[in-house]
Amino acid sequence: MKNILVGLTLVLGALEAGAQDFPQQDTTVRFEHHELHFSILKGEGTPILFESGAGNDGSVWHSLLQDINRLTGATLITYDRAGFGKSSLDTVHKEVEYHNLESSFQDLEKSLAYLGYSDEIVLVSHSYGGYLNYLYANKYPNRVKGIVALDIVHDYHTEGFADSLLNRIPEVIEKWRLHNPGMYYIHASLTQAADLISTVSIPDSIPVVDLVAELPFSSVEQEAKRWKSKHADFVKNHPRATGILAANCGHYIWRDNKPLVVMSIANLYASISSNEKRQEIEHRIAGYAITSSNEAKGDQYSERQNNIYGYNLLRRGMQQQALLVFELNTLLYPTSYNAFDSYGEALAIAGQTEKAIAMYEKSVQLNPENQNGRHMLKRLRGKHEN
């Protein structure tokens, strides 16, 4: 492999005028025959690296960055892989081996080291970008403090699925070879990438929030089922993984439910922060959740999603974060007996019996047929009297 870093230089400048209203730096890392473009939003603490999917560059993340920076205060790093966005491709070497998953990983690894981000890091990835997260976490388990995976590939392309896909689109691949070499090389090396990923895993020590889109990734039923099953298998087999079904969302989850993605990232970041910083982030998350949910008017950020997210937090042992989410649900949906029932359950688990009783009383008042609420009231009142 000749993809060796040579004559690196750094170029800093203001981000081109756009939708962002926050300071961001453009950085170019130059290799011998190509260069990578990075955008870095400066902050403090453990940085967050965003890894885009196949066919996308770093700009795909821009709609999320401002909110995530405000909630976490972290440095946010986005970049364009070779052949995408503002990053150039090595045109001297045309062999696939110079433009495969492993070479992309080497580019990233060396660039982060040069830019001074070779210490602790949080990873966020989408689709094909999950492969890069797998490789980085496998090689540097002590550096990676957490991963938020957004409808990533996992080991989807193994067992011949990569070849099956490629055999269906030979004309498209040929067009990419002529007009979009970045996409061509990703697909030309897809089988090799799948083989490589089958040999690595995300270490059990790393917390992972795994979001899977509810809407099918593929119109082929077998492929859509396989996609979701791979996510289910990962969550089942990884001891620190939390699975979240992104209701009514497509492959680009944040385009359909931006608050869900922003809060997933911010909550994971809070969980790996010091107690003082964690409390600050959680306070900001609560305010953001209320604002975002009101703006969504219950369409994209529903009572059901709040409940699912709250119970996911409870399963991870994140009681305080879960209580914030359940309390938010009662504020947004004051006529929902189920919202108060769930908040009561979370309070009971947290040992806040008096408040739990009050929530269950409200739930039963809203729905006298709520047998679970009546049962819990009897149980909690008895415990409280004793």
Question: In words, what does this structure look like?
Answer:
The protein has helices at residues 62-72, 101-115, 129-139, 161-168, 170-179, 181-188, 190-197, 221-237, 253-256, 258-271, 275-296, 303-315, 319-332, 337-349, 353-366, 371-385, and strands at residues 10-14, 25-30, 35-41, 48-51, 76-80, 121-126, 144-150, 208-213, 241-246. The chain is built from 16 helices and 9 strands. It folds into 2 domains: 10-335, 3-Layer(aba) Sandwich (Rossmann fold); 336-386, no CATH class. The chain has a 9-stranded mixed sheet, sandwiched between helices. With 386 residues, it is of the alpha/beta class. Helix 5 (170-179) packs across helix 6 (181-188) and helix 15 packs antiparallel against helix 16 (371-385).
CATH fold category name of the largest domain: Rossmann fold
The overall average pLDDT, rounded, is: 87
* Secondary-structure element series: EEEEHEHEHEHHHHEHEHHHHHHHH
Decide which structural class fits the backbone.
alpha/beta
Total of DSSP H or I helical runs spanning 4+ residues: 16
Beta percentage is 5-15%
Give the N-to-C terminal Cα separation: 71 Å
Helix content: 40-55%
Provide the CATH architecture of the largest domain.
3-Layer(aba) Sandwich
Spans of 5+ residues with little confidence (pLDDT < 50)? 1-21
Total count of strands: 9
What integer value in Å does the Rg equal?
23 Å
How many separate domains make up the residues? 2
Query: Strands across the major sheet, in which order?
Result: 1-2-3-5-4-6-7-8-9
Largest sheet: 9 strands, mixed
Shape: elongated
Supply the CATH class of the largest domain: Alpha Beta
The CATH homologous superfamily of the largest domain is called Alpha/Beta hydrolase fold, catalytic domain
